[in-house]
Amino acid sequence: MWPNSVPELREVIGELSSAIDAQQAILHDLLAKRSEALRKLNFFLDPLARLPLELQSNILLSVDSDNYPPKPIPKSPPMVFLGVCRLWRDIALATPQLWVKIHMDSLPRGSNYAKLCNLWLERARTLPLSISLHGSLKLDESVQNLLARYSAKLSDLKLSLSPNVSLDARFPYVLWRRGGQSLPALKKLSITASQEDPYCGDMREWLGIMRDAPNLSSCVMFNMEYEEQDDDFAASDPLTLPSLETLKLGDAQSMFLFGGHGSSAAILRHLTLPALKALTLSSLDEISMEEMTAFLHRSSMPLESFNTAVPLEFHSMVQHLRLLPSLVTLHLHGRPDDEPDGDPFLLILDELRTVSDFLPNLRELEIYTTSPVRFDYDMVLGMLRFRFTSCPTPLERFEIDFPQRMNSDHAGDLPNEEVRAGLRQLVEEGLKIHIGHSENLL
């Protein structure tokens, strides 16, 4: 029977509440003990649980891929690890290397998306960050804030621009400039627009990014174009990047096969690159011979690899190459639509055949052309013999490559049997030779 007075009911309720609290404490203790028992059982049943933390982390890290930057979605690593079990969650949160890479969309995704990306990057703790960004350069405000917040830790930045970027979506140079931030840790920068819709911007913006990244070692720009510059900017002193070792301005092979937009080579007028080791230019036609020569002279770089399409004024190529005695690998691409007055490779091959101190360290020479019929293969054989047997640094690999569709159409215009015999002899002596497309036609 329940009491009939208010004071007595209150007393009963108090007693019941105390009993409930005691039972809840017992239940909480039992749940904790069960959780600990399950953890110990998992330790015996799950091989991962018996490994040291370092090995546990390495197993999760092996799921990561450099080719596919992870996205902040539940079914993508490392997010998916958080929902497997408590052990995997603890390992993932204790492994900051899992969170150093992220692929973000620049389109508006709301505040929750920004909070998730921020939490992701916080889990990387003090490690350098790699951010891949896809979409319009008219960035969502929250994405801009994230880039500004983590600018000091940003080591690798990839910007992939969507087609049909509106004219008012100029490059947001202010991304990390809010409050005067720079990019002291940035080592790799890649900016890519679509071939169908190249991005045209102010060259001063690109140079401004480079100036803010004094430790930049690799820079890639595909399908970028520049607006006309005023006379004061054209006369300004070149920017020196003391650590830049790799510079790719366009895709020389795509330019060779499909044509397309320039290589942004005009930016070389405003750069000095004393540490440059690898240079790719899809075209040399955007920069004059005098400007290219001035760039090579003032940089005096230890260039080892040069990949470019032969310019329309191809006679200047030999003079440019004379300024690159450290060159080890040379890739030259012919043009698909032009008909220059003479063989664009003849001067270079003849110089290699007769002058031992022309590119004295050259070990690999690759030529991509749509016109194999224009080659003097007797000269090619003579050049290879001279470079392989008579030079202090012998040539190790030589290749002439052309589209597959030309193999059958022009097979009769390829090296005759006497030349092929000479080439085969060089192959037997150790020189790697390939002439053709997918099959060696020697």
TrEMBL record:
InterPro entries: LRR_dom_sf
Descriptive protein name: F-box domain-containing protein
